[in-house]
Predict the structure.
Amino acid sequence: MTPLKQPIYSRLALIGFGLIGGSIARAARAQGAVRSIVTTARSAATRKRVAELGIADQVVETNAAAVEGADLVIVCIPVGACGEVAKEIAAHLAPGATVSDVGSVKGAVVRDMAPHLPKHVHFVPAHPVAGTENSGPDSGFAELFVNRWCILTPPDGADPAAVERLASFWRALGANVESMPADHHDLVLGITSHLPHLIAYTIVGTADELSEVTRSEVLKFSAGGFRDFTRIAASDPTMWRDIFLANKDAVLEMLGRFSEDLSALTRAMRAGDGQTLFDHFTRTRAIRRGIVEIGQDSPAPDFGRAHPGLPAEPLPRPYAADNE
Ligand code: NAP
């Protein structure tokens, strides 16, 4: 990607500097998308670490101080905390500034933040659909948003120029941008992200509680599929607690549909109905191929994990004997 000739915003304030805030800072700096970056985080320990990393121009102690004079403010904290922060910064926002966020749920964030924000700012909520299971100031990287979607959910009556300016900021960070209403976002992400996380959290917990199978066996044979669930189930507990509370309705709706489909597959298995199972698995395989085709994942087998080669030396006799 070629860095911009002109920055899109002058002063970017990042409230919260974890995976997402830290990645925005790194990418915005690398691309020259802003002239300067000021940031803050809740704890003194994180603020100290961010100052050591040297990615922001200024690390300040309070949210109010961070937003002073900023023309773009992005709140990068768990969704359950966004309302309180909006209340805290409201009186300090510069006229004409754009206030945004990165929360994985949009309806609840709009409900909690919008009432506190003054009329003289543009509120344009956003959700970069990109992440990893890691968190904290060291976990971010500049390429996180490249070729990923960033969904904007501008409220009715939002200033189109302010929305377009924020969209161009995200495009400068490598993202593809789409706009949709907040409640539609929550439904889409309910099925594509929130329900899969709930399933991963459940299955990893279930395996952990199985008394007939030891924990060491679960770990040892995890490459049989379980390992891929464990990556998702390692995601930040605070963030995901807040997501399930904030997007309860959409996730419960999707969970209902999921349970019905699970019952249908259970019935097919019980009845020995192989055709139903085969047809279902054929359909899901096509979905995976579609994801690869549109460049949202790698076509490399096993997600591109490195696999050790065969041993250079012949195998010891007892193993070799199996093939003779
Ligand atoms: P993170 O790495 O855990 O960082 C969270 C940041 O928020 C930290 O700077 C933390 O400060 C601060 N914070 C935590 N609780 C707070 C509170 N109650 N009040 C004020 N600040 C608080 O989290 P993240 O992954 O960047 O996620 C941030 C947001 O991005 C969430 O809303 C999440 O839904 C959204 N998001 C995440 C992903 C993902 O995959 N991780 C993807 C897309 C969107 P301290 O370090 O001082 O505690």
Notes: The CA atoms of residues 67 and 123 lie 14 Å apart. Residues 9-180 form a domain with the Rossmann fold fold (CATH 3.40.50.720).
